[in-house]
Amino acid sequence: MGKQRSGKPESARTLRLWTYAEAVKALPYLRAIVRSLRERWLHLQQVRLQVRRLDARPGRPDRQALISRAEAAQEAALAEGHFNEALRELEALDVYCLDPARGLALIPFRRGDDLAWFVFDLFAPQGLEAWRFHADPLETRRPLVESLDPGLVDEVFSSRSLDVSIFQAAQP
Predict the structure, then answer these.
(1) How far apart (Å, rounded) are the C-alpha atoms in residues 93 and 20?
(2) How far apart are CA 137 and CA 34, in angstroms?
(3) Which SS3 state, helix, strand or coil, does residue 110 take?
(4) Per-residue pLDDT tens digits for 136-172
(5) Residue 131: how many other CB atoms lie within 10 Å
(6) Exposed, middle or buried, 153 (CB in 10 Å: 0-12/13-18/19+)?
(7) Is 120 helix (H, G, I), strand (E, B) or coil?
(8) Tally of CB atoms within 10 A around 164
(9) Nearest one of 130, 80, 82, 125 to 105, comparing CA atoms
């Protein structure tokens, strides 16, 4: 028997494709957002660990332990909200977080007729040092041959207007 679809309709979304020049120009802003995203991710992991440690204490918790646990859970919820806020800010630019702890994000562009992604690395000196096709494994990194020369690279990585639709389940 086949898998039944949920009653939720899927919504199509047009993906904004960047040029290399646009990506280079946005590097200071992207660096700030990804740095904030990373800091908020690390804080979220820290407070979640604190909650798990409080939950793992042996024996019945006393009043102070219950208060500490409630405060830690509240801080975790607040940290998750801050992380999601930074993530939404990044995604509003049609830039997608690959790994918040490592400071990696993907910036969509067009390579010929294919969807490809610039790989933004918060810790790389130039920020943009690699790219990958959409169909490549996530670990694939193809080096940018032309380093930070937007005019020359735009000839190679042209981003004429191409509508690429991605499907996401509609959220309530």
Answers:
(1) 15
(2) 22
(3) strand
(4) 998 889 998 755 455 544 554 454 444 444 433 333 3
(5) 23
(6) buried
(7) strand
(8) 14
(9) 130
